[in-house]
Design brief:
The protein is of the alpha/beta class and 347 residues long. The protein is built from eleven helices and 13 strands. The protein has a single domain, classed as Ribokinase (UDP-N-acetylmuramoyl-L-alanine:D-glutamate ligase), CATH 3.40.1190.20.
Length: 347
């Protein structure tokens, strides 16, 4: 792509209870998937000058990913996360002062991206936070800037024809206690065009007496509810629309685990999708898989219902794996054919 999607944030090693180690980190996972779907994303992150960092570089190179956004840290180690599982749902112990906490603003690559994707976890250290805000300011998509919602579709079309345009900013909310502060996350949503978050994150960011997260939402891992009644679903939908409107978002995607996902547009269009039956190994990276195909839909101008359906299809594949990523091109090949991603026409 002339203007590649750009990803900023954490890259790390997920360590599972059985000792297995899998490459992870939300921005890395999403970029990895888009590479699998035939795009050439640029990941901006940082690894240590250690064996884990070399492993990550080698895996990215073998997968065909660009390395010009991957910084090397001579002091801090490559990030690691200890993953605990309960009925397949993960919780995370994220090691602090890792290399990705120290992404340097003066080492940011020069590019004109189609989309700038980032989460909220990269804000936990002021060094990486400063680099993120520098990146957003460089492209005019910081918290103080916003593209009018009606112009988002037109801007996407401009990028596909190679015209210079302000990139879309896609925020993938990733609240991992204790590494977040509500006001800072809400500020980060200002100026975003699209946001993805899960049910528990919505409850945390839009607390109300009628939307108490404790009895309705699981507190482990992704925090997705599976047995929510109709009344609660209405409250959740209203909360999602309130959040979208409050921050002037062009679009919002709410993932709901076993209850599927909901998409909302500024135009008033809504869509929802039910989960695809799949045997669960673990839910690590399911939301990242959903985000990857949502971004693919934005870049390819897919209708919202089609985007959500395809995102759910792919997320259902990832939950059958241990961890969020795997160097397996077969995961993508049939979908690339079915979605006509390798031809001049998009389906």
């Amino acid at each position: 792509m002339q203007h590649p999607p750009c990803f900023f944030g954490e890259i790390l090693i997920d360590v599972f209870p059985d000792g297995r180690e899998v490459l992870g980190g939300a921005p890395f996972n999403v970029a990895w998937h888009l590479q699998g779907f035939g795009l050439n994303p640029l990941l901006i992150s940082r690894v240590g000058a250690d064996a884990a960092g070399e492993r990550i570089r080698g895996a990215m190179a073998a997968w065909g990913m660009r390395l010009d956004g991957l910084q090397s840290d001579p002091v801090h180690p490559t990030g690691r996360v200890t993953v605990s599982l309960r009925d397949g749902e993960p919780s995370f112990d994220i090691v602090s002062d890792s290399a990705w906490d120290f992404i340097a603003a003066d080492e940011l690559p020069d590019l004109i991206p189609a989309i700038v994707y980032h989460g909220s976890l990269a804000l936990r250290n002021p060094v990486s936070a400063a680099a993120l805000y520098a990146l957003l300011a460089r492209h005019g998509v910081g918290p103080a800037a916003r593209l009018p919602a009606a112009a988002v579709t037109r801007a996407t079309a401009d990028r596909r024809t190679g015209a210079a345009a302000r990139p879309l900013r896609f925020v993938d909310v990733n609240l991992r206690p204790p590494w977040w502060h509500a006001e800072e996350v809400r500020r980060l949503l200002d100026g975003a065009d699209w946001v993805k978050l899960n049910q528990q994150e919505l409850a945390w960011l839009t607390p109300a007496p009628t939307m108490d997260p404790d009895p309705v939402f699981s507190t482990a891992g992704q925090g997705e509810a599976t047995g929510v009644g109709e009344a609660e679903r209405v409250v959740i939908a209203r909360g999602a629309e309130a959040l979208r409107a409050r921050h002037g978002l062009a679009g919002l995607v709410l993932t709901r685990g076993g209850a599927g996902a909901v998409g909302l547009l500024a135009s008033g269009e809504t869509a929802q999708v039910s989960p695809k039956p799949a045997p669960l190994v673990d839910a690590v990276g399911a939301g990242d898989a959903f985000a990857a195909v949502t971004l693919l839909g934005l870049l390819r101008d897919w209708p919202l219902p089609l985007t959500l359906d395809r995102a759910q299809t792919f997320a259902s594949r990832i939950v059958q794996l241990r961890g969020a990523t795997a160097p397996d091109r077969a995961l993508y090949q049939d979908l690339r054919r079915a979605w006509m991603l390798d031809s001049g026409h998009q389906s």
